[in-house]
Amino acid sequence: MEISKINLINFRNYDKLNITLNKNMNIFIGSNAQGKTNILESIIILALTKSNRANLENNLIKFGKEKAIIKGKVKDNKLLRDLSVEILDNNKKLVVNKTQIRKVSEYISNLNIISFMPDDLEIIKSSPSIRRNVLNIQLSQLSKKYLNTYNEYNKILKSRNEYLKVLFTSGLADKKYLDIITDKLIEKAIVIYMMRKEYIDSINESISKIYFNIAGENGLFVKYIPNINIESFDYDTIKNILENTFKTNYKKELNYGITLFGPHRDDIAFILDEKDLKQYGSQGQQKLSIICYKLSEIDIFKKKCMTKPVLLFDDIFSELDIKKRNKLLNYVATGIQSVITTTDLKSIQKKYLADAYIFEVNNGKVIRK
């Protein structure tokens, strides 16, 4: 999968921008706050309909303009797609090959991406909700079944939480209805647990090798941590565990007024040499671990989607020494499209620059060097 062209209108600090991208490596170079990251952000929105900088989505439209438009031409094997995301205040219009798509779930997967942004360090440092969000984004690109199941789970979860509050405040409420909702929740939860476990297992097939090839250290893996003890991730086992958990904790959930158990409380941990990197990892180890996690997803996309994703790397080289930087580039130099931002090219070996497209970004102006 690759993007041949990107067109931006009134997006962030760009009035109009048309870029033709290389099918392999594309490097955007420039000082900070010139608009490099905005280009990556536009591709993320084109793929996922949402910005990675969620708290700034109200600023997507250039000041003084009514709407912003992001367009891209995407080649997926032999299929060609014209994608468009039109942003008006809090609304978005999604278009594929001139046909408007009403549901986000029907739009996602037209462009598959793997992105690394500086804020991704929060994946290790921050709360479990950040880590769950990473799982949900990538699994949603890989599987419409997962995306639909997860959306349905959240709707049922909301209904269950609301009814727990009703039961707590009203003696007339019927517990049998809660049992019906719980059964539906369990049905969706089982699918989510099984697909997350399969995904993490696939990550662990390659992440340790990638980390060793770049950093020379063994033993990196990702640990899946459901908030219930699941010994075996088969359908019947998970079903029995959830049924018993909800049955024995009914009064506890009633008092809290929320659902205390399920995949909405999952977590993952990054373990290197048997140590949790959240507690014991350096900034450099944490960053490289997240990058290796992202690179491990490439083979999963190949197997599941029969295509390669587009790699988006923002400020990827900071906190990595020159040796690690160039070993990292071995994974993104050929055979897969990458879009990379950096403030300078000094530490990049010339062999990687020979076939790359290099763009200079200065105050919202982009010129190919």
Helix and strand run: EEEHEEEEHEHHHHHEHHEEHHEHEHEE
CATH topology of the largest domain: Glutathione S-transferase Yfyf (Class Pi), Chain A, domain 2
Radius of gyration equals 22 Å
CATH class of the largest domain: Mainly Alpha
* Major beta-sheet overview: 6 strands, antiparallel
**Second rung of CATH, namely the architecture of the largest domain:** Up-down Bundle
- Looking at this structure, what is the CATH superfamily of the largest domain? RecF/RecN/SMC, N-terminal domain
Low-confidence stretches: none
The total number of structural domains is 2
Roughly what is the average pLDDT, rounded to an integer?
A: 92
**End-to-end CA span:** 25 Å
Q: Total number of β-strand segments?
A: 15
**Bulk shape:** globular
SS summary, helix count: 13
Provide the structure class: alpha/beta
- The helix fraction, in percent, is 40-55%
Structure characterization notes:
The protein is an alpha/beta fold and 369 residues long. It has 2 domains: 1-112 and 307-369, Rossmann fold (3-Layer(aba) Sandwich), CATH 3.40.50; 126-305, Glutathione S-transferase Yfyf (Class Pi), Chain A, domain 2, CATH 1.20.1050.90. Helix content is 44%, strand content 24%. The strands form 3 sheets. It has a 6-stranded antiparallel β-sheet. Strands 8-12-13-3-14-15 form a 6-stranded mixed β-sheet, with helices on both faces. Strands 9-10-11 form a 3-stranded antiparallel β-sheet. A hairpin with a 2-residue loop joins strand 14 and strand 15. Helix 4 crosses helix 5 and helix 6 (175-204) packs across helix 11. The protein is globular, with a radius of gyration of 22 Å. The relative contact order is 0.17. The model has no long low-confidence stretch (mean pLDDT 92).
